[in-house]
Amino acid sequence: MIQAAVIVPPSMDPRLVYDREANAGYGIVHPAGRISYPPLVSAEVVSMLQGYGYSVKVLDLSRVAPYEGLQRIKNLPPVAVAAVNTSLASWWNDTIFASSLRKYHPSIKIIAFGNGLTLMPARYRHDIQPYDSVAWGYPLGSLPHILTDSITCSLVGCERLQTPPNWGAFCLDEYSFLSIESSSGCHFGCEWCPYPVVQGEYVRLKDMRLLKTELTTIAEHASKGTILQFRDPLFPCSRERMEAIFSLISLVLPAHIAVGVETRVEYLDEDVIRDASEAGIRNINLGIESGDPFMLSATKPGIGSMMDAVTYLQRANRVMQDCLEYGIRPFAMFLLGLPGESEQSLQATVDFAKSLPDEIGRQASLFIPIPGTKIYKKLGSLADSALSSVLRGRRRAGDPIAGVCDVSIQTLADAKEQIDSPGNPRSAIPK
Ligand code: SF4
Q1: From atom 1 of ligand 1, which residue's Cα is the shortest distance away?
Q2: Contact 330/302 with Cβ under 8 angstroms?
Q3: Does residue 259 contact residue 230 with C-beta atoms inside 8 Å?
Q4: Is 203 exposed, middle or buried (CB count within 10 Å of its CB: 0-12, 13-18, 19+)?
């Protein structure tokens, strides 16, 4: 049996934590101590390698100190292949780590993988040292080719795994919440969003038997008080499907696992919210994006006019009130600093957010251009030089870029501080 290792690298700067799953796999950098996603793509890769007959050792070093991480790879037992989970946000950090892996084990075949590597523009792909290969596309489609052909692969857009991710290989009780996907893809095409780029614009549904097996594994491994977050870009995609998933949740998950979902305001009404509550859903993340009707009508697909935007904000208010009445905590998520943002539109968003009752969680993110998205292309060299700096470790992936809109970065940061729920122990899980 061939020996392989699946490795999630540590942060080489102990003040930071890298979340490689956020932003559809582009990743994000947080100050240490923030919540991070459990590595779903790594769990899928473990499952895939085992399906191909590999014996797999898992090293999830994402929360260990850099020195300990390096010691652990120094003592790695002999393996033929090391698959390293990376992302664009953590590319520089993970390259430094993989260089040490190469130094300690010169003959191992080292492969980089991560869903968001699809977003790496082609001109950056020539320099892959110290990796032997990089799975640019979805690793579940590209890794088998790399393993058999010794090539750097560019296969993209494959379907997700047809066996459940191997969560049992990870210490799930070290994560404050778990994640699951019951579907992938989104047809809304928001200009800033990487999900349609990475996952495609057509929605694909996971087979219900596969979902049941995955939920059962999570029920076995999750500790009390765990939050299980459905990370489908669109949940639910239809009433029928939603009811089937709610039945499954009621059947398989114990009451001590709280379930969260993320969806659009338009998909919710009182009936749906009541059913969600009865199924055990305890939080719903809603991408409100802006409290300013002009910004909404200019940037949010499905909102064609200022009047639509006003109606949308009223509906968002009603939906969040209904959630509270049925025992679900809504999280309103805002995006600040898109092109077109002005001091007036920013203030409208702050006012809208602050008008929400305290029980409603609030989280604002500062816009960053992600490669492959429509806005990234529009911003041209401004966005590209920012990405270049991220890949060379000269700036943090989540830092906003000056000059995208008419508002200064300091003003955006001040607005974010006003919007974010004060002392919120668990702010909305980042997308
Ligand atoms: S609806 Fe959500 S997931 Fe879909 S494109 Fe817009 S922001 Fe992205």
Answers
A1: 188
A2: no
A3: yes
A4: middle
* Six-digit token string for 99: 């260089």
- Considering only CA atoms, which residue is closest to atom 8 of ligand 1? 193
Q: How buried is residue 270: exposed, middle or buried, by Cβ count under 10 Å (0-12/13-18/19+)?
A: middle
CB-CB contact of 17 with 30 (8 Å): yes
Q: pLDDT tens across 140-150, in order?
A: 778 877 887 76
> Of the residues 184, 187, 188, 199, which should be mutated to test ligand 1's pocket, given the most ligand atoms within 8 Å of the CB?
188
Burial of 275 (0-12, 13-18, 19+ CB in 10 A): middle
State whether the beta carbon of 334 lies less than 6 angstroms from ligand 1. Answer: no
CATH 3.20.20.70 fits 176-367+404-419, yes or no: yes
Given this chain, do its domains 3-149 and 176-367+404-419 carry the same CATH topology?
no
* Whole-number Å distance between alpha carbons of 38 and 125: 27
For 16-66, what is each residue's pLDDT tens digit? 999 999 999 999 998 887 777 888 899 999 998 998 889 999 999 998 999
Answer whether 242's CB lies under 8 Å from 182's CB.
Answer: no
Q: Residue 35 phi/psi, 5° resolution?
A: -65, 150
Tokens of 36: 């991070």
Kindly tell me the number of DSSP H helices and DSSP E strands found in the chain. 14, 15
Q: Global pTM? A: 0.91
pLDDT digits (tens, 9 = 90+) for 216-274: 988 888 877 788 999 888 887 788 898 899 999 999 999 888 899 999 898 899 999 99
Which of 351, 315, 357, 311 lies closest to 334, judged by CA?
Answer: 351
Cα separation, 308 vs 304, in Å, equals 6
Query: Any idea where the domains of the chain sit in the sequence?
Result: 3-149, 176-367+404-419
Q: Is the CB of 197 under 6 A from ligand 1?
A: no
Under CATH, what is the fold of the domain 3-149? Rossmann fold (3.40.50)
Instruction: Report which residue type is found at 227.
Output: I
25 CA to centre of ligand 1 in angstroms: 14
How far, in Å, are 62, 64, 241, 262 from residue 208 at the CA level? 31, 36, 9, 19
Q: Is the CB of 195 under 6 A from ligand 1?
A: yes
